[in-house]
Amino acid sequence: MNTATGAQAGEAQATSAALKPTAALVLGSDYRALAAVRSLGRRGVPVHVIASGNDRLASFSRYTRATFHWPDGERDRLELLERLARADGETWMLLPSHDELAAFVSQHHQRLAQLFALTTPPWEIFRLTYDKRGTYELAQSVGVDCPATFYPRNRSEVEQLELTFPVILKPAAKPEDNLLTLAKAWRLDDRDELLRRYDEACAFMSPDLLMIQELIPGGGTAQLSYAALAESGEVLHSLVARRTRQYPADFGRASTFVETIEDPGLEEPSRRVLEAARFSGLVELEYKIDEQSGRTLLLDMNPRVWGWQSLCTRAGVDFPWLLWLHLRDEDVPRAEATPGVRWVRLSTDLPTAIAEIVRRRLSLRSYLASLRPPHDSAIFARDDLKPALVELPMLMGTLIRRLVSREGV
After folding, report:
1. Weakest-pLDDT range from 7-11, 184-188, 365-369
2. Which residues neighbour 113 within 8 Å (Cβ) at sequence distance 6 or greater?
3. In the structure, what pLDDT confidence band is assigned to residue 403 with cuts at 50, 70 and 90?
4. Which one, of 85, 138, 80, 127, lies nearest residue 102 by Cα?
5. CB 263 within 8 A of CB 249
6. pLDDT at 138
7. At a CB cut-off of 8 Å and minimum separation 6, what does 36 contact?
8. 404 FRET partner, CA 20 to 30 A, in 134, 149, 295, 379?
9. CA 94 – CA 120 distance, rounded (Å)
10. Least confident of 79-88, 213-222, 391-400
11. What is the DSSP letter of 325?
């Protein structure tokens, strides 16, 4: 794929910033995309969706005016975007909702910036958040703590590592779905298991993308996120949340229960990282508190809309709408997050909670108390019912496909 040089990236970013959007094109169609569609559609913004993968929830929203299919080939994808950019007489804000979709836009930033109001930074900036190797190097350069991480180049180097078990094996980036990227990480309790799973991972992804990392103990109360809208590293709006439950419970692919909190301690390190990256757009920084040492460790950066973003809207910081106003150079209202606002995706939170109750890591009383109103639902909305009606059949189809392909659930 094409990447831009520093000068080209700056020029493309300036061109994109000069385009004031009149409509929004959401790239992706899962529940993250659904939240963005609703945020903008409720404000009267014309929204189209490019559906990708098997999760098409956003396509069923009443606020989605048209849906297009994301092709397989790179050339076809660019042709689709260029064709849509020239249609309907609109200037489109292009808003990706998935890591790989955002990476595609970033890698073609110079070309797409001539046609769209982009919300994704050029590759030289984006890669620092997309690839955990770059993320950890960036964080450590500004004094932000990260888990101890090793980057072996081959099996021999894995054998020679001095490790304290358990550890985790995880990908530095996720260019495609496979057993490891879908699981997010594998826990490994001894050297033999590490070597066996390392060999397994090398069969479907490059060893250059594999990392071995210390396992940070602690449950949901130790999982925190700092969400922000930034411009060239300056934070314009932010919010802090606790990711209390996730699915799967140990290394969640997605949060299932989240609540806004006050934690001023995350503000300063997060701002340092974003300023060092000169990041522009929406981003979520995931942290975990090591309950044994008290360290707050940066785990991930998600440089696109995140799963629980509709919580932010309910809490008073409507990130997609604020981004829209910012791109249009309109007056942006002051936005302060209300602590104690809760968000749940019941279809994935319920099985997560049942498993935690069986393990005696969560009481039934505590679980029921966490669901007391008011809270924001990831899918259900009184003014937009159809996505909730199709979610369960869609999840069952995904489950069956993964079981048949042995990708795991």
Report:
1. 7-11
2. 12, 13, 15, 16, 19
3. low
4. 127
5. no
6. 97
7. 24, 26, 58, 95, 97, 305, 309, 320
8. 379
9. 8
10. 391-400
11. H
Range of the domain at 184: 148-214
pLDDT tier at 404, thresholds 50, 70, 90: low
Q: Say whether both 244 and 206 belong to one domain.
A: no
Matching residue, tokens 């590293």: 233
Read off the amino acid at residue 151: Y
pLDDT at position 163 is 96
> What sections of 252-385 are H helices per DSSP?
267-277, 309-315, 319-327, 346-358, 364-370
What is the longest distance spanned by two Cα atoms in the chain?
A: 60
Residues 106-148: tens digit of each pLDDT: 999 999 999 999 999 999 999 999 999 999 999 999 999 999 9
| DSSP string for residues in 198-220 | HHHHHTTS-GGGEEEEEPPP--G
Q: Which of 53-62, 194-203, 239-248, 397-406 has the lowest mean pLDDT?
A: 397-406
Separation of alpha carbons 402 and 408, rounded Å:
6
- Quote the tokens at residue 318: 């409507």
Model-level pTM? 0.91
**pLDDT of residue 171 exceeding 50:** yes
The CATH number of the domain where 71 resides is what?
A: 3.40.50.720
Tell whether 201 and 232 lie within a shared domain: no
Which strands make up the sheet holding 167-171, listed edge to edge?
Answer: 149-150, 210-214, 167-171, 186-188
Same domain flag for 365 and 250: yes
Give backbone dihedrals phi and psi of 249, rounded to 5 degrees, phi first: -65, -40
Number of H helices, E strands in the chain: 16, 16
Please report whether residue 405 resides in a domain: no
Peptide bond before residue 374 is cis, with ω within 30 degrees of 0: yes
Q: Which residues, in sequence order, are CB contacts of 33 under 8 Å at separation 6+?
A: 26, 27, 49, 57, 58, 97, 305
Given pLDDT bands bounded at 50, 70 and 90, which one contains residue 399? low
Cβ(260)–Cβ(340) below 8 Å: yes
